[in-house]
Write a structure and sequence with these properties.
Layout: H1 9-29, E1 49-51, H2 57-62, E2 69-73, E3 77-84, E4 91-105, E5 131-132, E6 135-142, E7 145-150, H3 155-165, E8 178-179, E9 195-202, E10 210-216, E11 222-230, H4 231-239, E12 248-250, E13 259-260, H5 261-270, H6 272-280, E14 282-287, E15 299-310, E16 336-341
Length: about 375
């Protein structure tokens, strides 16, 4: 399973309705003399946050068809809109949270299989371009109580936001679904087919202190993962030839990135404190899929873009200037690529007794 999740009939229906309603709402809300300035004059105006298209050598070796979009987005913003209740037809003022993004397809160097044995089908053409189908999840945190929100398709809000941001080509999460844009070289004078999108949410708990937005679909990157297992289990598997020193591993700490067995072993030789933490931790590790299908007991994880915000305001007089990319302890919340499991998040468990290694022993990488 390498492609995005299939679109539901509801999302397809929403796409059709959104296109019709959006045109009608935009015409009603925008006076004829107040033209929306074209975005082509200053395509990057306000898109100050940039997340480059990047992938490690391990990722490119594991997935030869990997693509990763370059993403820019504006600060998280708020707007109050008169929204129509689809059930009653009545309008009411609602606070809408929204995020604007701009996506461009940049080239990735494709290393391929270092042994030159990648399977190649020269008889059947590729089934078509990869699909760009982004999905967005907002996780609100108030005093360690989490609430999860999926984005809403709001044509009325979308039309008002397009006028406010002077971006008439804004598309919602359903309208943007389609083939990924053509590749734009880094030295190109103009980006090829950039995608301008807007994500909207309503009903966010006004007491929210921290916000985390997960954005999937901006890459087709995936990996199969097993774990968590104690570090001793990984060491035994490495000694037995079941894992390689290049195998990607992660300790489940959301503030840390994936590393590999080689770096862990080298760190253990030079830093006694880090060695103790490494050996006491539980680890997730990447396994390769076999020709027959996904490896047994492994979970599919997808490459996902994540951005955090701190919001020290309260429920009174909510203001978009209250979103900060720095935490209360001056920690910087930079956007970054992570791998995230499909379905419920996987949490690391406590290390089991040293003798209890057989049930969690890694299987060969090709299993």
């Amino acid at each position: 399973m390498t492609g995005p999740s299939p679109l539901t009939p509801i999302r397809i229906l929403l796409a059709s309705l959104a296109t019709v309603v959006l045109a009608a709402v935009a015409a009603a809300q925008q006076p004829t003399e107040a033209k929306v300035a074209p975005a082509t004059s200053k395509p990057l105006r306000g898109f100050k946050i940039r997340v480059p298209s990047q992938a490690s050598g391990e990722e490119r070796n594991q997935q030869t068809d990997l693509w990763v979009l370059e993403v820019r987005f504006k600060p998280l913003r708020l707007v109050t809109i008169n929204l129509t209740d689809p059930k009653t037809g009545k309008k009411s003022k609602q606070l809408v949270w929204y995020l604007l993004y701009r996506a461009v397809n940049r080239p990735l160097p494709n290393k391929g299989d270092p042994n030159g044995v990648d399977p190649l089908n020269e008889f059947d053409p590729a089934p078509g371009k990869s699909l760009f189908a982004p999905e967005f999840t907002l996780v609100a945190n108030d005093n360690n109580v989490q609430k999860i929100y999926s984005d809403n398709i709001l044509p009325e809000a979308q039309a008002a936001i397009a006028i406010r941001e002077r971006l008439p080509q804004l598309k919602n999460s359903v309208q943007v679904v389609g083939p990924i844009p053509e590749v734009t070289p880094y030295d190109a004078k103009q980006d090829i087919s950039p995608v301008y999108g807007v994500v909207t949410w309503t009903g966010i708990d006004p007491r929210t202190d921290f916000v985390t937005i997960y954005m999937s679909g901006f890459s087709n990157g995936y990996r199969y993962v097993r774990g968590p297992v104690p570090f001793g289990t990984l060491s035994q598997a490495l000694s037995g030839g079941q894992l390689r020193r290049a195998t990607a591993v992660w300790n489940g700490n959301t503030t840390q990135n994936w590393t590999n067995m080689h770096d862990l072993l080298e760190t253990s030789k030079t830093d006694a404190l880090k060695k103790q933490a490494i050996e006491a931790g539980n680890w997730f590790y990447v396994v390769k899929a076999a020709a027959s299908g996904p490896p047994a007991s492994a979970t599919l994880w997808r490459k996902t873009l994540v951005q955090r915000y701190w919001r020290p305001g309260d429920a009174i007089d909510q203001d978009e200037t209250e979103f900060f990319l720095k935490g209360p302890n001056d920690e910087v919340f930079e956007p970054r690529w992570i791998y995230r499991p499909e379905g419920p998040p996987v949490r690391a468990k406590s290390a089991p007794p040293a003798k209890n290694t057989a049930p969690d022993s890694p299987k060969p990488a090709g299993s």
